[in-house]
Amino acid sequence: MNSIESYDYIIVGAGSAGCVLANRLSADPKTRVLLLEAGGRDWNPWIHVPVGYFKTMHNPATDWCYLTEPDPGLNGRRLQWPRGKVLGGSSSINGLLYIRGQAQDYDRWRQLGNTGWSYEDVLPYFRKSEDFEYGENDYHGVGGPIAVSGVRIHRKLCDVFIEAAGEVGIPRNDDFSGAEQEGAGYFHQTCRKGRRCSTAVGYLNPVKRRPNLKIETHALVQRVLLDGRRATGIAWTVKGQRHEARCRREIILSAGAIGSPQILMLSGIGPAAHLKQIGIEPLHDLPGVGQNLQDHLQIRSIYKTREPITLNDEVNNPIRKMLMGIEYLLFRTGPLTIAASQVCVFTKTSPDLETPDIQFHIQPLSADKPGDGPHRFSAFTASVCQLRPESRGRIDLKSGDPAAHPAIFPNYLSTPNDQRIAVEAIKVTRKIANTKALGSLIAAEHEPGPDVQTDAELLEYARDRSQTIYHPVGTCKMGIDPLAVVDPRLRLHGMEGLRVVDASIMPNLVSGNTNAPAIMIGEKASDMIREDAQS
Ligand SMILES: Cc1cc2nc3c(=O)[nH]c(=O)nc-3n(C[C@H](O)[C@H](O)[C@H](O)COP(=O)(O)OP(=O)(O)OC[C@H]3O[C@@H](n4cnc5c(N)ncnc54)[C@H](O)[C@@H]3O)c2cc1C
Q1: Whole-structure pTM value
Q2: Which residue segments constitute the domains of the chain, with CATH numbers given?
Q3: Quick check: 194 and 332 in contact, CB under 8 A?
Q4: Annotation marks residue 446 as catalytic
Q5: 160 C-beta closer than 6 A to ligand 1
Q6: Phi-psi region of 490 (alpha: psi -120 to 50; beta: other; left: phi over 0)
Q7: pLDDT of 300-320, one tens digit each?
Q8: Minimal CA–CA distance to 295: which of 470, 70, 434?
Q9: Is the CB of 91 under 6 A from ligand 1?
Q10: Which of 237, 475, 501, 515 to mutate to test the pocket of ligand 1 (most atoms within 8 A of CB)?
């Protein structure tokens, strides 16, 4: 074992939240910070090209490549669950879509007893993290580390989809992070001049040479070292060789919704009965660790178009594909700048609802499943997900080996309400597809297809074909109830010197994509950690 060094803060995981912490906590030159990341540096050029997620997702060099356990709600199917394993974490391999959720999401967190997390409390941190292309206003900030920009390409199909949404009464919205979330429009994306702005690019690169910040890559954290109820250090391996570091102030787990509960359980912190089953001595019985898992499930409808106006047509044509590459290299524009989706729609399955309960992601292309090559025919995808699912899953350990993947039980579509909304959501998709504007472009519904009509058939389709939209959260939830893992200042209940700061602390999934909220959590936690150090 190498000599043991001491740090003020040790951050585990250089993902969306971890990179924020590394930047903000090392801003004080007197504070020594260690950042440990299991993945490597973000040198793969596809990380930085927006459309490159097709190359980095499902690639073990940049993705943990998790596979869920067979899920009864999906007729026993197992899903691939990508998670970034590289500097920047999932922000380096995600779909680049910038969405914050609804003000009511955060107000609900606050209502659960989480002082300091209402929308009014968190809005300044969204603004602080942001460099918004269209300038500063009440909702957006400029000069922050994360570039947020508009799309660099408009397509006829996307414009028509927005028009079709208007035909069924969904208003145009050009800013889903502004005063109103409801509506249809183009997504904002985490991009600067056609290049991905991950948290590694925005937060880590500008400070990586600070002498008081040490960044270790390929460092697989094994466990938190404890002295009674105090976290005192961390153990990790690099290429099988074990290392340790001591911590003077705090250890912060930012290993994400799968990694953070896994590390806690490997350290003897979690549901005691489960830990004993695995052969791990429970040191702190905390029943909520790994529980409360929530995710957005996308139900994809695919429509064949009458004309070759989709990206399938461009990608399947070698000459047009080459021209796309040249356009990107010369101007940083064109189809290679496309994020995972172009058009977003937030709407309601019932007019009685206060806020939208479903979100559409529209892609001017189609494939059998996300990450697969495009179909040989012209088609587009309208994917829809329920925003606030009631279904709750969990993460268990399969063994005490830190290199083994944990068991992921998403438990999708396990409540009658989630099942009902899945069915209604497909009906809303069809309503938009059947408008005058969009109907004239569509040749046929490829999936679910005309044979799928009754509610029971639609639900069966959702069970057979839906996929994750990559938003697992909630497995180390913040709160004041017996299943809460961290308190509202993100300190582990019943422990000293240990916090969790990442998407796992969300008590309830936000009504939208989760990268911007994870970054906000990193910003807010950095302030809380610095404040607490002074008290
Ligand atoms: C394919 C994909 C597409 C997505 N698309 C979007 C999108 O378009 N818009 C959006 O808003 N959100 C999207 N998301 C979700 C969003 O990116 C995540 O919610 C967010 O990045 C989570 O941040 P985090 O800090 O909690 O975890 P992460 O960013 O995942 O960071 C966790 C880090 O911890 C490291 N780690 C884990 N375990 C260990 C260990 N034992 N030792 C050392 N290091 C460890 C990981 O390697 C990783 O770098 C997507 C996610 C994926 C995977």
Answers
A1: 0.98
A2: 1-127+196-294+392-412+472-535 (3.50.50.60), 152-186+297-386+413-465 (3.30.410.40)
A3: yes
A4: no
A5: no
A6: left
A7: 999 999 999 999 998 888 888
A8: 470
A9: yes
A10: 515
